[in-house]
Amino acid sequence: MIYLAGSGHPGGSLSIIDVLTVLYFGGILRYRSEEPLWPQRDRFVLSKGHAAPALYAVLAQAGYFPKDYLWTLRKLGSILHGHPFNIDTPGVEAPTGSLGQGLSIAHGMALGLKLRKYDSRVFAVLGDGEIEEGNIWEAAMSAGFYKSGNLTAILDYNHLQIDGYIHAVKSPEPIPEKFKAFLWDVIEIDGHDHGMILDTLQSAAKRDPMGPPLAVIAHTVKGKGVCFMEDSVDWHGIAPTKEQYEKAMGLLDE
Amino acid sequence: MNNLVSSSPRDAYGKTLLELGKKNTDIVALDADLSKSTKTAIFAEAFPDRFFDMGVAEADMVNTAAGIASCGFTVFASTFAMFLTGRAWEQIRNTVAYGNFDVKLVATHAGITVGPDGSSHQAIEDIALMTVIPNMKVLAPCDSISTKRLITQASESRGPFYFRLPRGKTFEIHKDSEKIDLGKACLIREGSDMTIFSHGLMVYNSLLAAEKLSRQGIEAAVVDVHTIKPIDQQLVLERAEISDKILVAEEHSVNGGLCSALALFLARNRPVKMRFVAIEDQFGRSGSESDLLTHYGLDETSIFNKSMELFK
Q1: Is the ipTM of this complex over 0.95?
Q2: Is some CB atom of chain A closer than 8 A to the CB atom of B48?
Q3: pLDDT the model gives residue B212
Q4: Contact at 8 Å (CB) between B171 and B4?
């Protein structure tokens, strides 16, 4: 997808794909791809919108649109924009891509769903570099204060941002303590262990909607599954060449 | 003119929101710690379950509003114009407007007439910031009656809106019996020698200037452009046909507000002789409402003098 598009973000898409796979195909998210706006659906917000290719892949697999569309990513006329856009893409709940905004949007959804008296849940995926944005912590304060227990934030903790390792650029650590200080519960997991992701998200989906929100800190590897992309900041925002693409697909098939 | 009564448009907003909330359980309101000033507190008291105070966090308020709206609610989000359009601009642009959510942004304390608080609180660029965003409709009612009508109409029309209201009271220009429609500018005073277009509290100053002009034998029409975007193209073209002399008066920077919108529209469609009464490229400062209007050349005398230039 990114190879054909000629640009995009492979590293952060690969680090979160395991979590998205479990969310959409592990029985966690309740959705109807044939009725994308089903009012009682659970909501998913990809706050780190640059991982759009990962989201589009699971949405296509879930049946929101034909898989052929994936090859039109980022092309003029495509319904698959470089970053998620709710108006054009079925299954996308909100526009994201400008970092720091998705958690507030997701929290608004959580409040709205409770006002509607639906038992629907909201899941948001955040990037670790992204939580350097102040808007994230405004949202964290709000969700903790309003006891939005129907909201779960999943942090893609791959330790890399564009300028380098997050601890070197401007560390947002300690992260669990920060969420706890804003009255969230926190769980840390291996973000590539499907069993562990499943158990955690299943318990998240059963939480008291009037209790504290949950932050799942998913320890991940940027570029996971493609050895030459793993833990490399160089693969944040570039597309592979033909040779690299073929090699990567071979590695992922293994 | 002398017998006009004055009232507070933000009071009218608060009361209208309450009425809308009674009729429609899908109306939700948010504020950023200024609910007593913006008057959303009236709604909050009646419907505590449908009101969320997001604290001093405008960016969070705007995105939260979009999230709630995505569940089928019509969400009103209010705070001062400076912090709503300035601090949360990108949230408005990238979430509310781009995502086309049903969020009504109603800002109070807009313009230079915030007064003594000074420039940090005087939004004189809010219309520019909002009109430049696609999907966004921009309104600046001149009095309580038009505020009530236009807020009600906006609540019935899906999608993002921006309303700017002043801190102080304004004279009631419109009558309860009058027809006021979103998107349709109101001809308040007839006159065939020139037309003054304005919005907000400048409509009253324009009327005062028109009376003064009349005494000089110049009959100026005055138009209340309560809807700045989309502009009422038909009425603007009609006025330009009647007289090719047009003055635009607004309590806003001369850049990016009604002055800019009309200059662009008329330059493209029917170039006329124009003059502008607005704040030149500068910041405001502390002062009383009337002293500031005089200092920044927004009073009736300034409108009169600039109008006379059209006849030289």
Answers
A1: yes
A2: no
A3: 98
A4: yes
